[in-house]
Amino acid sequence: MPTHSDAPRGETLPSGGAVHVLGAGPVGLLLAALLQSTDRFAVYLYEKRREYTRTRMVQLAPYLVADSIASYCTDYIDGESVEAIFEPSELAEGLAFRQSISPDLMRLLRQWTLGFCPLNVIERSLSELIDARQAHPVRRATGGLTAQDAMALPRPGDVVIDCTGSNSLLRDQLVPGAANTFKLRLEYALVVTFLYGRPYDCNEYCKYYKNIENAYYKFIPAVNRTYYDGSITHVTGIINIPAEDFERMPSRFDGQWLRVNFPDVAQSMDRFIAKIALETQGEIVGDLEIVRIPLDLFRARNATSRQLRQSGAADHPFAGAPVFLVGDAAMGSPYFQSISLGFECAMFLAGLLTQPDLPLAVMQDRYEQFIYKQWLRVYMRSKMIKHNKDVFECVGDTFTLLEKLHIY
Ligand SMILES: Cc1cc2nc3c(=O)[nH]c(=O)nc-3n(C[C@H](O)[C@H](O)[C@H](O)COP(=O)(O)OP(=O)(O)OC[C@H]3O[C@@H](n4cnc5c(N)ncnc54)[C@H](O)[C@@H]3O)c2cc1C
Known about the structure:
Strand content: 15-25%
CATH topology of the largest domain: FAD/NAD(P)-binding domain
Number of strands: 13
Helix content: 40-55%
Structural class: alpha/beta
CATH superfamily of the largest domain: FAD/NAD(P)-binding domain
Order of helices and strands: EHEEHHHHEHEHEEHEEHEHHEHHEEHHH
Shape: globular
Bound molecules: flavin-adenine dinucleotide
Number of domains: 2
CATH class of the largest domain: Alpha Beta
CATH architecture of the largest domain: 3-Layer(bba) Sandwich
Mean pLDDT: 91
Low-confidence stretches: 1-8
Number of helices: 16
C-alpha cells in the first residue's frame, strides 16, 4: 500500500467542492461539525429522521480527548492493541488533529467522556452547535435517501460520506459486482436496561455470585455498563438467548411480558436483580426495558470507492466521486465503544480531507489502511470478550469449561 510520501502525485480535491454527509446520527453530525470549521468545502447533511428520540445512555471513551500517547493507551486491553497495531507517528498525527478541533466542539467531547449521556443529547447538542455557527452554514435536507438518490448527488470534485449506520446505504455499492459486508453473528441477546435507586457497581465476582442459581440463562451486566449519576444507577445487562427464542419474541417489550412468555429467562434476570436489592437495599425505578437484538461484529471490506475508481467503471457515478464510509456504516461491534470509534474515524477522515495537496488516491489508500487497523483492534477485543463470556457462562461445569479452552 503506498504511503503519503512514496505515492505518485495525482488528482486532488478542488477547493470549493461539496461534501455530502449522508446520515445525521452522532458520527455524521460530528463529521459535519469538523468539516464546517474549514471553508474548503460546502457541507451538505442529509437525514431521514425529523427528531432525535434515542434516549439510551451511552458512554464515550476518554481516548477521544487524549492529549498524549500515554493517555490514549490507558484502556486495560485496548491500549496494548493500539500500541501493537499503530505506529507512534500515526498516533501522534491523531493527537495533533485533536489539538486543531475548535473549542466549542472540544468542550462537548470532553463533557461526554466524563460519564454516561443519553444518545439524543449528544445528537441534539451537535446539531445545535452546527446550526449556531453562522459563518459557514451546513445545508441540511430531511428525508430518506435511496442509493440512487445518493448516486445522483455528487458533481465533479464532490465527496460523498456515508454515515447511515449499521444498515449502511452505500456499503454494498462500493465493489463492482460483489457484496462488501463481512459479518459474524456473535450471539442473540436480550438487552435489559433499568434504573436502580441506589449506587450499584458490578465486577466479575458479582456477575458470578449473582448468577450461581441461573443454570442456563445468565444475566450479565454489559461491559462497563453500570453508571451512578448521583441519585440513580443506570444498569444495562445482556442475556444470551438461543435463536429459537429470538424468533419468537417481539423486538421490544417490558419485564412483565418476559415473565409471562419466557419465565425461565425472566427468572434469571429477576434473581440477579433481587440479589442486587438484598446487597444494596434499593429498588428498581420504573420498569425494565428490554430489546432483543442479534449481536453482530461486522465491517465493510472496502471503506471507500477505491475499487470502483481503479476498475475504471466509467458509467458508475462513484467511479469518479470519492465515497467514504464512517461510523457504523464502516464497522461495528456490540462489545466496543462504537460511537467513539466512529468519532475517531471521522476525525481521521476530516484530517485527510482538509489537506489540500493530498492526492485522492493516497487519501483513499490511507483511509482504507486506517480503517483496517481499527478493525483489527475491534475484532481482537470483541473476540476476546465473547470468549471470556463463553467461559464465564460455564464456570462450575469443569468439562464444558475445558472444551472452551485451547491452550498452546
Ligand atoms: C442498546 C445499544 C446500546 C449501545 N450503547 C453504546 C455505548 O454505550 N457506547 C457506544 O459508543 N455505542 C453504543 N451503541 C452503539 C451506538 O449507538 C452506535 O455505534 C452509533 O449510534 C453509531 O452512530 P452512527 O452515526 O454511525 O450511526 P446511527 O446512529 O445509526 O446514525 C445513522 C443516521 O443515518 C440516518 N439514516 C439512515 N439511513 C438513511 C437514509 N437512507 N437516508 C437518510 N438518513 C439515513 C439515520 O436516521 C441515523 O440518524 C449502542 C447500541 C445499542 C443498540
